[in-house]
Amino acid sequence: MNGGDFVSNRERLEKLKDDWKRERVIPLLKRFPERKKEFKTSFDGPVEILYTPKETEDYEEKIGFPGQYPFTRGVQPTMYRGRLWTMRQYAGFGTAEESNQRYRYLLSQGQTGLSVAFDLPTQIGYDSDDPMSEGEVGRVGVAIDSLEDMETLFEGIPLERVSTSMTINSTAAILLAMYIAVGEKQGVDPSKLTGTIQNDILKEYIARGTYIFPPDSSMRLITDIFEYCSKNLPDFNTISISGYHIREAGANSVQEIAFTLADGIAYVQAAIDAGLDPNVFGKRLSFFFNSHNGFLEEIAKFRAARRLWARIMKERFGVTDEKAMMLRFHTQTGGSTLTAQQPMNNIVRVAFQALAAVLGGTQSLHTNSFDEALGLPTEDSVTIALRTQQIIASETGVADTVDPLGGAYFIEELTDRMEELAMDYIQKIDDLGGMVEAVRNGFVQKEILDSAYKYQVSIENKEQIIVGVNEFVSEDKEVKDILRLDPAIENRQKKKIEMLRTRRDNGKVESLLDDLREAARGSDNLMPFILKAVKAYATLGEIANALRDVFGEYTEAVIL
Amino acid sequence: MKIKVLVAKPGLDGHDRGAKVVAMALRDAGMEVIYTGLRQSPESIVKAALQEDVDVVGLSILSGAHMKICSKVLKLMEDSGIGDKPVFVGGIIPPEDAEELKKAGIFEVFGPGTSLKSIAEKIEKTVKK
Q: Which of A299, A332, A364, A389 fits a disulfide with A86 by CB distance 3.0 to 4.6 angstroms?
């Protein structure tokens, strides 16, 4: 490239940047002003909204501008200069009363959205008094058996003002119905509800394990939810396509985005096959990624995922509405990176991981508590985790310009490479007949397990150093504060169900469950039937069992 | 004779990375490993241990349900006449609970960060005794 080209290229880019400012940024600023009048460095220099390279060949095609296809630099033109990411700590344990207390505490400390953790029986469709639930009630999240518990969970929390994310998959339709019903009791119209249900069953078969039904019936429940919400809850994110758990199960960064986007392709195809318009439901898809230890790699991963998804929606599915091409995502710092040894070191790990997520342009963020390799986090440790986000947001200045690492040679190179490798995987999965097939035959699980084993071996032979675990080891001081759950929770929940069954109209519940079974045998949308049953105080287990009667249960193919 | 190990995932917990990685490592260390898959009841685990005539049982639990599950497995093993087989537990187990489990008859508790090599060595030493 000679000097003349260099100048004209640079001038051209400046002009493009001016166009972008005029067309995208200024109109947006009228509705959503920036957080500050001026953004400055510590030496009083200006911080611009965006930096672009001095020379480039394919800048427009590959990197472009924030809020514009292919969204490599972010999904909104102003990103965090307008509004910071949502600080959303995943929480929930014990009974609805205890979790309600924790939510109110977190909101009072400046958290901006709720994220509900449910216990395993709730996630797998068993009531607390089911023999399968023994020992598990209220352990990894809150126990919800009926609408009554859900009312308690959100008591005093105005649903029209707080967005709620619910980590719920095979029973997502039931919990969503309960959420709608609680909203109605608070006088909130369903169309005003905002939040997210995880509703991503494919990664349950792959990595997380809370499946109930076989894949085809699960996919139907998901498309039923898409359809119902597009009509009744237009601002609700109907799925959070999750790479988080795939990564936690041992996948590497490329596998994380490849398998997640491949899951996304399967959902989009299923919804199109069910007659839905990807330009409409595509806007309600959201994603959920892990932020792991490799700082620069993680930043590039988020950027690569954003660009790849935009291309998939546009080129593969022919989507024309840019909003339906945007990969919006939540991030959680990597739980499996936390060490039980020298647990205070985890505060530092979490801070770096959170910073990578912010530099990668996340829409919301959960930061893990330092004591999570030991047990459930305490109120103190959760507060430090939230403060970590607040420090990044208020003190570091990284939120003052959009995609600050964009254009860094290494970051762009990594972004390109990760996109390419992820695309190779997606191609391989297509060749196998799509993600549902690739999961059924164990291909995805095997790839992940191989990576997990390789990683563990690299720690054993010290190729990978983990501070405090295989190097820089010191005698541990005992962590004194570990949250202990009251073992009486299980009995309290059992009593509550017993009481409920004496109070409600059992005949009505039975007949509504029969209606649900009948509908499940046919092809009607199941959401209205589930909503009716929920409002009559049918329990979660009863509703899930009615569906089990029709759909049957999935048993995993054991891969080793 | 190869040491025969049953690696089991009791309860509703779906975190199977640890169980699978340990199973692979024990296999690489020359043992015969049977992995049960998810959502096994204590009854089905003990039944598998009997049928396969294993030397060691490993339980992986990260959901917090370890106290109830472990005591049930130990009791059922006792009742089935295999109470002498060592039972190992891995997962997120608070230190106090680990002590209590060992008192109740669990041979060893492996927390996060335990090396694969040390697990294999411990099992070898225990079985050969």
A: A364
